[in-house]
């Protein structure tokens, strides 16, 4: 979704995330080893987020709310769905424009500027990015599973289906729930209820949304 707005994808084919080993910038061990590196990395991501806009796919999903109840479950940490107008967004992997206490994961605050060593939470602990790192629990996973379980239609957009536990959410969908998979290089094949749309999000999502609105 967000790559077409100019946001760097999670990691490249060589396993690096903008030149960094992901474990250096996205793990509790990396944080313990070099807090400054981690803070600098997310500060750059946060600054970039101020300079990008929702794309046609984000806007199409927001438009879908005109006739459907739409719940979005995203692995992205940006706020582009919200900026496009979507009202119900569950962030599985956290939010870049928030920070949280290193002692209390439930102590979360809005944070849209650079985060520095010495920036403290109300409990006196160092603030860290509100991002779920490798090896950490996914707090919103249970909520996401319940949303999928209740869905009448499931749309999966731009994912490799390789990152767990998020990739396992499809297993919670009802057996008669139609599933649309939109990705330019899909790593799944059509079968039964699963329809594959081999397009980028900015093309595939608006077309599917238009189809659903016409059929409503």
Tell me what you see in this structure.
The protein has helices at residues 22-25, 28-33, 35-49, 56-64, 80-84, 141-150, 201-215, and strands at 16-17, 20-21, 72-74, 89-91, 94-101, 108-110, 127-131, 154-157, 179-182, 194-197. With 216 residues, it is α/β, with parallel strands linked by helices. The protein has one domain: Rossmann fold (3-Layer(aba) Sandwich), CATH 3.40.50.1220. The strands form 4 sheets. Strands 6-5-7 form a 3-stranded antiparallel sheet, with helices on one face. A 3-stranded parallel sheet has the order 8-9-10. The model has no long low-confidence stretch (mean pLDDT 92).
Shape: elongated
CATH architecture classification name: 3-Layer(aba) Sandwich
SSE topology string? EEHHHHEHEEEEHEEEH
Strand order of the largest sheet: 6-5-7
Q: Please tally the helical runs, counting DSSP H or I stretches of 4 or more residues.
A: 7
């Amino acid at each position: 979704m967000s790559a077409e707005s100019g946001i760097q994808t999670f990691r490249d084919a060589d396993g690096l995330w903008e030149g960094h080993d992901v474990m250096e910038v996205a793990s509790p061990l990396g944080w313990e080893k070099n807090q400054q590196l981690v803070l600098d990395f997310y500060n750059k991501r946060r600054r970039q987020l101020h300079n990008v806009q929702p794309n046609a796919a984000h806007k199409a999903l927001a438009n879908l709310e005109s006739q459907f109840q739409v719940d979005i479950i995203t692995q992205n940490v940006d706020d582009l769905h919200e900026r496009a107008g979507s009202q119900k967004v569950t962030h599985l992997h956290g939010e870049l424009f928030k920070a949280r206490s290193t002692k209390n994961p439930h102590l979360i605050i809005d944070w849209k500027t650079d985060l520095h060593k010495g920036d403290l939470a109300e409990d006196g602990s160092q603030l860290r990015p509100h991002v779920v790192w490798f090896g950490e629990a996914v707090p919103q996973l249970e909520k996401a599973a319940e949303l999928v379980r209740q869905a009448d239609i499931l749309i999966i957009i731009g994912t490799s289906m390789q990152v767990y536990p998020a990739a396992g959410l499809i297993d919670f969908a009802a057996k008669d729930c139609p599933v649309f998979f939109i990705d330019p290089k899909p790593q799944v094949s059509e079968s039964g209820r699963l329809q594959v749309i081999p397009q980028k999000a900015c093309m595939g999502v608006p077309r599917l949304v238009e189809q659903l609105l016409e059929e409503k």
